[in-house]
Amino acid sequence: MIRIGLTGGIGAGKSTVARTFIAHGAYHIDADEIAREVVAEGTPGLAQLADAFGEDVLDGDGALDRPALAAKAFASEDNRKLLNSITHPLIGARTQELTDAAPPRTRSSCTTFPCWWRAIWRRSTTSS
What we know:
Blueprint: E1 2-7, H1 14-23, E2 27-30, H2 31-37, H3 44-53, H4 66-73, H5 77-100, E3 108-113, H6 118-126
Parallel strand pairs: 1-3, 2-3
Helix pairs in contact: 3-5
């Protein structure tokens, strides 16, 4: 399977290009969606974030309070690395699960991801 990675900033056209690939039979994986999925309410990822950064990164309903997490996670380089050590493996594993679950005879997959994810995706695709 040919794996195509699309990256760029907000409004760069990733979704537009992805729709073109999809229209031609590509299997689509959206890393932004996966990043939200792996820390959704009730997931091990969310529990790990709460353990690492404190229960106050959860809102009143038990979901991730993104601004509260950001305030802690980006307060220091060590905290940012801790955040990444929790989320990046989960995102990478889920991305691989979805890639492996592509329908038989899929000739290409198209993964869209934000600019910050490039290095992680590059490592995951060159190591497999």
